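Reading a protein record of the kind used here takes only a little practice. An example makes this concrete, so a full record is given next.
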Amino acid sequence: TQTIVSGASFYNGGVAFNAATGALESKLGTGAIAAMPDGIVYGSKKDVRVVKLAEKSAPDRKGVPTKSLEHQVVWSLAGVDGSAAVIVAGDSIIAGGGTTVTVIDAKSHQAIWSAQVDGVSHGLAFANGRLYVSTDTRV
């Protein structure tokens, strides 16, 4: 289970909690997540999205207006599998899923590089200008 901190919230198992109180704020769902300055990167088999928590007001069962937090999509890129891992490196989002790794420009929201890897990708790391991908067969 991934645990990350973003702003006043922390995420564990796809659920956002208030970092100060531990109260549940919103559910994101299963998938890979990473923090970035303007939100959370969320990778699924179908797409990679940048989301942020936004306050909404809606009536409860009794019609009383209540405030809650929900994930609002800032932008998304369909057709990219980020279900195994996502990381942020500078102005790039790197997504791994299945046997594919994709680099997305966080400013243009477009895929700028993609490659097949041997085996199923599990983990990603970026250091000293190099991308490292761990798979079920090798690094």
Notes: The radius of gyration is 16 Å. The chain has no helices and 14 strands. Residues 3-135 form a domain with the Methylamine Dehydrogenase; Chain H fold (CATH 2.130.10.10).
